[in-house]
Design goal:
Blueprint: E1 2-7, E2 13-17, H1 22-31, E3 39-43, H2 49-61, E4 64-68, E5 71-75, E6 83-84, H3 86-91, H4 99-106, E7 108-112, H5 125-133, E8 136-141, E9 144-149, E10 158-160, H6 166-176, E11 182-186, H7 192-203, E12 207-209, E13 215-219, E14 228-230, H8 235-247, E15 251-255, H9 263-271, E16 275-279, E17 282-286, E18 296-297, H10 309-316, E19 322-326, H11 336-342, E20 346-350, E21 353-357, E22 368-370, H12 374-386, E23 390-394, H13 397-400, H14 406-412, E24 416-421, H15 424-428
Parallel strand pairs: 2-15, 3-14, 6-7, 10-11, 18-19, 22-23
Antiparallel strand pairs: 1-23, 1-24, 3-5, 4-5, 7-9, 8-9, 11-13, 12-13, 15-17, 16-17, 19-21, 20-21
Helix pairs in contact: 1-2, 1-7, 4-6, 5-6, 6-7, 8-10, 8-12, 10-12
This protein binds uridine-diphosphate-N-acetylglucosamine.
Uridine-diphosphate-N-acetylglucosamine binds at residues 23, 26, 94, 120-127, 163, 165-168, 189, 193, 306-307, 329-330.
Length: 429
């Protein structure tokens, strides 16, 4: 299994470019199924494990795909299968995003049930409730979810989501594109990735308005065509690098930034006394000598993103004073706490609340820690950058799911981080 070895306490400097957004490209790749002919061209596609899995899902369904550098070309004209295997669903939960497009185009979709994951149970009930409202008959049997549209096509419906789920909003938008009549989704998720999906679908010929607000209207159309699209920058990767600058008391420049996607993160970092200067589509981040403790509540966008919670916990462990983090999106997203404690952090968890008694500089020390999921892994790397001596982060395959060239980018900024591969043979030597 591959690991990172990090030698901490180097202030970062220099600049890096932020890659295309993982959470934007996954639904857009799923949406490319909706084009019956032609080649969809997607640019600024990050080279990530999760994107590789979505590519495998699309190929399994019958798409022909070329992926060169950061451009992916998808020809969905030969898609015939409507079933996603258990093997692919287990590799990545976001594989469930093909349900809406398959149902829209073929009137039928069958997916293996996604099941639980490290950060919470993550059911699909909101996706299915919406599809049922659009006339799909849904059966959950033998570990599979099978949805069939009556008479082969879905019908527009008024859907009010019980919670603004990102995946449900995306799946329902894609399903509604080719439905008969108008679909209105209220209490929709407002994340920037949903607005990017709207832009992409409208280029294809869909008639969608309102993405980015809590009310989305979709007028069904007859057909969608293949188009070209560039993916928005990854706001979570950007936030992670902002924390890297702050936690090392560094001075770094991040390029390819969409500031309006990062307001909540920028506000919290400023409250902690991190200096943030906007320079066009770039951001300069300067870490202070002493970070101030703050309280954070994770919320749906435009609130503070749950995907930045672990990284901020690492940062708050090095701040002066006591901070409180309330995790309001996922019920089990504190798996990094025990690992941060191993590094000397003082954190107490009560239900969905974590109380962090910051140790100021000099607090964290390097040791062997294990990444339990993607963002928890990123948080441990960040803690390692601030810790005294060496930190070894194990199970970094989680980090590879969502960060493109993570250690290379950190090294460009002056971090001392290497990837090592250990095998039993190497131990025996
Ligand atoms: C997406 C992001 C993920 C991010 C999350 C919240 C992608 C590929 N992933 O995940 O990185 O952490 O948004 O911002 O974009 N829920 C239900 N029933 C459902 C669907 C969701 O109860 O049918 C609950 C979930 O259990 C969770 C909450 O809603 O507690 C948020 O989930 P959701 O917004 O759907 O997250 P994802 O789309 O899975």
């Amino acid at each position: 299994m591959e690991k990172y070895i990090i030698m901490g306490r180097n202030p970062l400097s220099g600049s890096v470019r932020i890659s295309g957004s993982k959470n934007a490209v996954l639904p857009i790749l799923a949406a490319s199924i909706l084009a019956q002919d032609g080649q969809t061209i997607i640019k600024d596609v990050p080279r990530l494990k999760d994107v590789q899995v979505m590519k495998e899902v699309l190929e399994f369904l019958g798409c022909e795909i070329e992926w060169s550098g950061t451009t992916m070309k998808v020809d969905a004209s030969k898609v015939q299968s409507i079933e996603v295997s258990d093997f692919l669903m287990r590799k990545m939960r976001a594989s469930n995003l093909v349900m809406g497009p398959l149902l829209a185009r073929f009137g039928w979709a069958k997916l293996s049930y996604p099941g639980g994951c490290a950060i919470g149970s993550r059911p699909m009930d909101l996706h299915l409730k919406g599809l049922k409202a659009m006339g799909a008959k849904v059966e959950e049997k033998f570990g599979f979810i099978e949805a069939v549209a009556e008479n082969g096509s879905l019908k527009g419906a008024e859907i009010c989501l019980d919670f603004p789920s990102v995946g449900a909003t995306e799946n329902l938008m894609m399903a509604a594109c080719l439905a008969q009549g108008e679909t209105i989704i209220s209490n929709a998720a407002k994340e920037p990735e949903i607005a990017d999906l709207e832009t992409f679908l409208n280029k294809m010929g869909a008639q969608i308005s309102g993405a980015g607000t809590d009310l989305i209207r979709i007028k069904g159309v007859e057909k969608l065509i293949a188009v070209e699209h560039s993916i928005i920058p990854d706001r979570i990767e950007a936030g992670t690098f902002m924390v890297a600058g702050a936690i090392t008391k560094g001075n770094i420049k991040l390029e390819n930034i969409q500031v309006s996607h990062l307001e909540a993160v920028i506000a919290k970092l400023k409250e902690m006394d991190v200096k943030i200067i906007k320079e066009g589509k770039s951001l300069r981040v300067i870490g202070p000598e002493t970070l101030r403790a703050v309280d954070i509540k994770t919320m749906p966008f435009p609130g503070f993103p749950t995907d930045m919670q672990p990284q901020m916990m690492a940062l708050l462990s090095t701040a002066k004073g006591t901070s409180i983090i309330s995790e309001n999106i996922f019920e089990n997203r504190f798996k990094h706490v025990d690992e941060l404690r191993r590094m000397g952090a003082n954190i107490k968890v009560e239900g969905r609340i974590a109380i962090i008694k910051g140790k100021d500089s000099g607090g964290l020390s390097g040791t062997f820690v294990n990444a339990s999921d993607l963002r928890a892994g990123a948080a441990l790397v960040l803690a390692g950058l601030a810790a005294q001596d060496a930190t070894i982060v194990d199970s970094i395959y989680h980090i590879d799911r969502g960060y493109e060239n993570f250690e290379q980018k950190l090294r460009v900024l002056g971090a001392k981080i290497i990837r090592v591969r250990e095998t039993y043979k190497e131990w025996e030597k």
